[in-house]
Amino acid sequence: MKWLLVSFLVAFFGKQCLAQEKPPVQFGKISKKDFELPPSPVIDSNTNGVVIADVGNTEFVGSNDGWFRYVYKRKTRILVLNKKGFDLANIQVFLYINSEKKESLEDVKASSYTLESGKITETSLNKNEVYEDRHDKNHIVKKFTVPGIREGSLIEYSYTVKSDFYFNIPEWEFQYNTAPCLWSDYQVKIPLMMNYVSTRHGYDNYYIHNTNTGRATYHVTNTYDNKSLVQGHDDLSVAVNTIESRWVMKDVPALNISESEKYITTPENYRDKIEFQLSQVYNGDEAKNVMTTWTQATDELLKSEDFGQPISQENPWLDGELKKIVGNETDPLQQARKIYYFVASQYTCNNHSISGIRTSLKEVYKKREGCVGEINLLLIAMLRVQGIQADPVLLGTRDHGYAPLDYPVMKKYNYTICRTRIDGKDYLLDASVPIMGFGKLPLNCYNGFGRTINARDTSIINLNADDIKEQEKTTVLLINDAKEFLSGRFEVTPGYYESRDWRAQINKSSQKEFFKNFHPGEEMSPLVENQEIDSLENLEQPIKVQFDFNYKPWTSEIVYFSPMVLETSEQNPFVAVQRKYPVELSYPYDKLYVLNMEVPAGYTVDELPKSVKVLFNQNQGFFEYIIEKDNNNNIQLRTHVFLHRTRYEPSEYNALREFFGYVTKKQSEQIVFKKKK
Questions:
Q1: Per the domain annotation, does 30 fall within a domain?
Q2: Nearest to 582 by CA among 652, 641, 511
């Protein structure tokens, strides 16, 4: 697939042509000509700023602990066209830290250049204008804003990051959110004592993709403590082979996914970028794999104080709480339900993108809040103390982007859920999301698969959105009524996930406010009666909404009647003429509508829409519209729209757009009634 490609960095050798072509700018040297907007197919009237050149480089140097560290340098030039492009001057650099070491940001330089009356004026950043914030347990963020920016300004900034955390060398994003990039250039030079896996995302092609081998000498200091506790060190010079890679993209459009392309899980799946993770190291004597298999990754996770260790302990401090929760219940499934609903209702999730534990389970238990990892690992610990089999499942959510199936690129996994096995049946649980039933997962979890984290079982858990069963069924009954002309009963049973959204809406306001969503048309009486919502408190089932309504008496000789009663007049959701990115639905589209009505007293049917059945891509879906009038003067309509898949490639977009265009047009057709004489 073009949007995700995983490869070993040492394994490929790209094309050699154009390999020596240099970036089209000289950083630090600004001329009047640089303020002119270059011609480019990715610049249009909506462009607010242009990244003229973005150049990065990562190289390794010898470290003071007998190994290597990397040095990452970046230089960027941007032309700001108007005030909407001022955000491009706000720069953030994330740095990794732990209890022993931290990455450093050095040599920060930033200037804006303004051309006025033929004169170039420079405004430079002061060192004290770089600010620091704590992002999370393992990251700080350095922030600065290029000063003196105006409409038409050129800005340049550069910085260096030095790091001992060589497990993940810096990724490179060729594509910006809101600005096109005319030249994006990244080079990496790695000693062959380290092998990396690279993951390539995006749709645009490389302008240059070149890989060569070389040789370099690294000066390494090996610091040690001898038996007398006097510190010493050895200085070594190590000559090793290297691999040198360069990736260049030219005229990269802004990602900027428009409203017309809103059916997409996350733009990050399609951003042009390349990521790296260490797969193997060689110390001169032997090669050592670094988390190259899920078995190895699972072993590390189970030993981790932030993940596996807390749920492997006995945790006797939970005994008293569990006795209160479970009571006299002896059935394991009902015990699990009670524990799940206790955690889901009593604990608040404050972060849905951290898969592990930041403090301790005991602290989470006391505070009644935590991140998704903490809440679901607490659930697992409670189930285990109760004697119920439970294991964590690690996954990457939809909004976090796709993760490779076979290789544990750990930063792609941001979410932990619970798998419990009771009487041979598996249940997947997520107690971090309110109003979610036992055995149900939020849609964000359906991103392909999850991985069970268990010493004996690292199985793949299928989380394919295509497998979600989510049908919305609407039934309308219309009968003649001596008092009210036509009386109707409306019933709608949404799918499980839409039911959850409606429950949340009702909890936030009231049932009275909720029923205002069902607006009677002008031809109906404003009063909606006998309002009911079934299964509102049963979080494991869809709800059913039902109410009665009436039509005002008709007086016209000819009446045009829409048989899609109280259905919102839907437009084609796919209005754009063309689309660059795939269409990704949350679940397979499945809507069923059934109408049974008596022909209104005093009228006859003059014209009915024609029945049709249309297939989408042969057997990939269908639309049926079946309508008829029987001998008892009753009209029945059944209309059903169904698609088997959730993902449609750009090459399928026109067919999908035409299909929904036909559905929309057909469902807007009307029955013509004629007054009896």
A1: no
A2: 652
CB atoms within 10 A of CB 41: 8
CA separation for the pair 550, 645 (Å, rounded)? 39
- Strand 671-675 versus strand 603-607 pairing type: antiparallel
Among 254, 274, 289, which residue terminates a domain?
289
Q: Are 544 and 535 in contact (CB under 8 A)?
A: yes
| CA atoms of 630 and 635, how far apart (whole Å) | 7
**Which parts of the chain register pLDDT below 70?**
1-19, 223-233, 259-260, 291-292, 484, 526-527, 568-570
What is the b/e burial string over 445-455, where b = at least 16 CB atoms within 10 angstroms of the residue's CB? bbbbbbbbbbe
Q: In the numeric block, which tokens belong to residue 627?
A: 């309508």
* CATH number, residue 438: 3.10.620.30
Give kind and range of the element (H or E) at residue 417: strand 415-422
User: For position 225, what pLDDT does the model report?
Assistant: 52
Asked, for residue 34, whether it belongs to a domain, the answer is no
Q: 168: domain range?
A: 4-25+47-289
What was the pLDDT predicted at 233?
Answer: 63
What is the rounded distance in angstroms from the CA atom of residue 112 to the CA atom of residue 146?
A: 6
CA 48 to chain centre: 26
- Could you identify the residue written with the tokens 């076979």? 406
Q: Cβ neighbours of residue 572 under 8 Å, at least 6 residues apart?
A: 657, 660, 661, 664
* Cα-trace Rg, the chain: 31
Q: Among 188, 196, 124, 189, which Cα is nearest to 153's?
A: 124
Q: Are 429 and 379 in contact (CB under 8 A)?
A: yes
Residue-level pLDDT at 260: 63
Nearest to 632 by CA among 671, 600, 665, 598: 598
Q: What angle do CA 576, 577, 578 make, to 5 degrees?
A: 90
245 plus 307 within the same structural domain? no
Query: Which pTM was predicted?
Result: 0.87
